[in-house]
Amino acid sequence: MKKIDRIHAREILDSRGYPTLEVEMHSGDLIAWAGVPSGRSTGKFEAQELRDGGPRFDGMGVTKAAANVNGLITETFKRFPLGRQQEFDEMLRGMDGTGNFSALGANAVVGASIAYAKLSALAKGVYLCDYIAGLSGQGRRMPKLFMNVLNGGWHAGNNLAVQEFHIIPEANDVDEAIEVGTALYHALQRVVKGHYNATAIGLGEEGGFNPPAANTREALDLLKEAAKQSGFEDQVRMGLDVAASTFLAEGLYVIDGKKLSSEELLKHLAAIAKAYDLFAVEDPFAEDDKLPFAELKKLFGPSRHLIGDDLTATNPDRIHAAYSDDAVNGVIIKPNQIGTLTQAIEAANLARSYGWLVVASHRSGETEDAFIADFAVGIGADAVKFGAPARGERTAKYNQLMKIFS
Ligand code: PGA
Ligand code: ZN
Questions:
Q1: Which residue among 118, 144, 297, 334 is the active-site one?
Q2: pTM
Q3: Is residue 334 annotated as part of the catalytic site, yes or no?
Q4: Does ligand 1 come within 6 angstroms of the Cβ of 153?
Q5: From the CA of 241, how far away is ligand 2's center (Å)?
Q6: Domains located in the chain, CATH noted
Q7: Burial 364-375 (b: 16+ CB within 10 A, else e)
Q8: Where would I find the H helices in 18-84?
Q9: Which of 33, 242, 363, 394 has the CB geometry, 3.0–4.6 Å to 39, for a possible disulfide?
Q10: Which atom of ligand 1 is least distant from the CA of 38?
């Protein structure tokens, strides 16, 4: 088997114009690159990325993380054979020793783990999604697209508390889902312009529109109107990533002009989910506000999905705890929340064993790296979150999906 000859990490820019890590790995004449994503509304229980601090790039530099790759990680893995993903990832965990990668940096670790997977796939001469499928034991299935076409919360400059408003095309194949989703996205631009004015068509951090909608229902009405105008009204459902911890202040949720207790927010969201027949609702409460999750899940029944993201943090222990609490019936899987590919696959497989909806997700800060699309297919994800079908760092993922399934 081929071996690692060289590893080199550097700073590149992410979609917010801040540095992120790129890890380059060589074996003979094969080269792989991994661009590391980064969240803004990160959960408390995520693996810790390493940032430089200080005045440079507002403290967001990643030269220390790069130095960890170019130093310790390179020394450990030079001449390490390719194709032994579990061993590679397990050694990274052992080297770090903190449990949340706060020593090496989760950005350094996920960059190394992904670059190693890409180089191993190249060495084996297989598609990356099939290499990952070999690790997960899952078959290819076409994922649903949760397209984040309207942005709020910390990803946007409007007054919406809810972070993401998804449209979910019902389609027979990826190409059809993309066609429906983009038709709706373009119709939404016209609807937003007509409802407010031309200055309202600016975009949020995941490429969704950023209109000055007054509240959650007004934003969902815009999506409904766009669905109607696109002609695909019967072929779309809607969903939300509430990201509730981002608007929790002094024990109350500040949303839609109100300050709500957990119990009040539960009623508020249950009414919205029913009125708009939402397919999925993610993080409706903060990650340590455990009690209302089970209650809302009961209200939803099996036809609606209650999805954990900050709650579960791609962490098998937290996924198991959420299962014991009967908190959710779906989960977001983001490799950089846990650190290594092996752990992310373990998290996805555990969630699947519970019968949950498995949703593979990008981060709000992204690069042009389309890895997450191959990862989603490789773990047999039921759905994906790649943002809006616009902006290069988002379309890279949709385009990769179209390549895989064509
Ligand atoms: P983040 O947002 O990448 O900023 O954490 C995505 C999400 O909450 O799903
Ligand atoms: Zn989320």
A1: 334
A2: 0.98
A3: yes
A4: no
A5: 5
A6: 6-125 (3.30.390.10), 144-404 (3.20.20.120)
A7: bbbbebbbbbbb
A8: 63-68, 74-77
A9: 363
A10: 3
